[in-house]
Write a structure and sequence with these properties.
Elements (H helix, E strand, L loop, with lengths): L16 H14 L5 E2 L11 H11 L14 H15 L9 E4 L2 H12 L5 E6 L3 H9 L3 E6 L15 H5 L1 E6 L12 H13 L3 E5 L12 H4 L28 E6 H4 L8 E5 L1 H14 L5 H12 L3 H23 L12 E5 L8 H12 L1 E2 L1 E2 L10 E5 L4 H15 L1
Parallel strand pairs: 1-10, 3-4, 3-5, 5-6, 6-7
Antiparallel strand pairs: 2-8, 7-8, 9-12, 11-12
Keywords: Aminotransferase, Transferase
Cofactor: pyridoxal 5'-phosphate
Protein name: LL-diaminopimelate aminotransferase
């Protein structure tokens, strides 16, 4: 057989937390285990009826069956810009400041190709979402992981970034509410990040999929600021957008997906919004890779963004109920974890016996109990000693999962 030589950039991509757990789940299923899968943050809730109807109606329209180029996405871009302005009070030009994406993961993975030259650094959250690192590796860039520690509220400390690394850095990636730690960030933190990136000529990327999955008021600092120009003008969101700290869009780009707020993960629809030059550059990369998804899916997304929002509120209530039930069950068995204010995740510190081997913990847990969770180490070095639970089942099944873990833990 021919010895095929592959690019070196593939080496860091050999391991992936979701692929690793998928193999572990397959082994458990083959052994006859009934698996309760809490490892993947894929919402089990359905998309709203009016969204499905918009897509269904599109199927009968022959004009939707062909390739969809940028100009054909005008209606979706206008809906996204209006949704954003209503939610955050930020004016957005749908022609130059919005780009449709096949999910926000596409955008975060492709943007480094437009920003980094080989050897340039990207400053990433550690732990963080795997595609953020994957995009940097594909661009032949280097990663400087910014550790997220509980004592800092899982926020990075910019002053700790070494000067030689900063001199070679081109971009910083943030994401709050955060996956996997479920931490939130106040507007003052985003203002600090914008000033830091302006000072050091960095592109500031914010991945923002959990904007709506916030369970309670998060404090005065989120909803107000010492700078009146940066106040939330229309506080329909409990957490701030990065563009509220950078209303001129000087260095910032933000990614939103309809996967979480609107339960449309399988439809693969999101968008980038922000600095016009960054949008243009990402559009150039996208044009070399694909056109756009089926127009009917964009019609469904327009219906989601412009139609009734009761489904969003219902999803938030559902995940809050699951959070409360799961946290209570963990506390009953002596696993005391903090209650998150956002996302669909529980970030749990492991018992001391497993504090240095989260991968082995998760592998043995699914093997012996059928409960599948994600190892913290899969999200970065600073994630070691933690596991992430995804609240993608109803409370009775979540409580059964906790019951199964009792004997394993003790």
């Amino acid at each position: 057989m021919t010895n095929i030589q592959f690019a070196k950039r593939l080496q860091p991509l050999k391991s992936n937390v979701f692929a690793d757990m998928d193999r572990a789940k397959a082994v458990a299923l083959a052994a006859g285990r009934e698996v309760i899968d809490l490892s993947l943050g894929s919402s089990d809730l359905p998309a709203e009826a009016h969204v499905i109807e918009a897509i269904a109606q599109s199927l009968h329209d022959r004009s939707t069956h062909g390739y969809l180029l940028f100009n054909g996405t005008q209606g979706f871009r206008e809906a996204a810009a209006n949704w954003y302005e209503q939610k955050f009070g930020i004016k957005v030009d749908p022609q130059t400041e919005v780009l449709p994406l096949i999910g926000s993961q596409e955008g975060t993975a492709h943007l480094p190709l437009a920003i980094l030259n080989p050897g340039d650094f990207a400053l990433l959250l550690d732990p963080g979402y795997p595609s953020h690192a994957g995009g940097v590796y594909l661009a032949s860039g280097q990663i400087y992981p910014m550790p997220l520690l509980a004592e800092n509220g899982f926020l990075p400390v910019f002053a700790d970034i070494p000067a030689p690394v900063l001199a070679q850095s081109r971009m910083m990636v943030l994401s709050y509410p955060h996956n996997p730690t479920a931490a939130i960030a106040p507007l003052s933190f985003f203002q600090e990040a914008v000033a830091f990136c302006q000072q050091h000529n960095l592109v500031l990327v914010h991945d923002f999929p959990y904007v709506d999955l916030v369970f309670q008021e998060t404090g005065e600092e989120v909803n107000s600021s010492a700078n009146p120009k940066s106040k939330i003008q229309n506080p329909k969101s409990l957490v701030p957008s990065i563009l509220q700290a950078d209303p001129e869009k000087s260095v910032s780009i933000e990614f939103f997906t309809l996967s979480k707020s609107y339960n449309m993960g399988g439809f693969r629809i999101g968008y980038a919004i922000g600095n016009a030059q960054l949008i243009k550059a990402l559009r150039q990369v996208k044009a070399a890779v694909d056109f756009n998804q089926y127009r009917g899916i964009l019609n469904g997304a327009i219906a989601a963004l412009t139609g009734p929002q009761a489904g969003v509120k219902s999803a938030v209530t559902t995940f809050q109920g699951r959070r409360d039930a799961f946290i209570s069950a963990l506390h009953r068995i002596g696993w005391n974890v903090p209650t998150p204010q956002a996302t669909m995740y529980i970030w749990a510190k492991l018992p001391s016996l497993w504090s240095e081997n989260s991968v082995e913990f998760c592998t043995q847990l699914v093997k012996q109990t059928g409960v599948a969770v994600s190892p913290g180490a899969g999200f970065g070095k600073s994630g070691e000693g933690y596991v992430r639970f995804a609240l993608v089942h109803e409370p009775p099944l979540l409580e059964i999962a906790v019951e199964r873990m009792v004997e394993f833990l003790h």
